Amino acid sequence: MSALLEAVMLVCFGLSWPINAMKAWKSKTAVGTSSAFLALITFGYIAGIASKFVGGNVNWVLAVYIINLAALGANWAIYARNRLLDKRRLGR
Question: Fewest CB atoms less than 10 Å from the CB: which of 18, 56, 71, 85?
Fold first, then answer.
């Protein structure tokens, strides 16, 4: 039951990443996006994954962590693209 509840939390939280990525892609600007926030969330997912291995509790929930981390990776890529677009607009 614990693994199921953990997975539900991860799925609920993880659904926000594709939505955020689409919004950021359409906006074509990094304004309003915090790299510190993305870094903190990335660190949290990595810590969650590490806890699975350290605690010897590697199970199917690990796949949900990895899917969320991949979606977050897409957000990082879009953030980098949008920063570049912002710099080009400003002539830097």
Answer: 56
Residue 71 contacts residue 17 (beta carbons within 8 Å): yes
Residue 21 belongs to some domain of the structure = no
Q: How far is 71 from 49, CA to CA, in rounded Å? A: 15
72, part of any domain: yes
Task: Please check whether residue 50 lies inside any domain of the structure.
Answer: yes
Position 57: which residue type? N
Single out the residue of 73, 54, 53 nearest to residue 62, CA to CA: 53
CA R_g for the chain: 16
DSSP label at residue 48: H
C-alpha 25/C-alpha 27 separation (Å) is 6
Using one digit for the tens of pLDDT, what is the confidence trace for 30-81? 999 999 999 999 999 999 999 999 999 999 999 999 999 999 999 999 999 9
- Which residue segment(s) compose the domain that 65 sits in? 33-92
Number of residues written out for the chain: 92
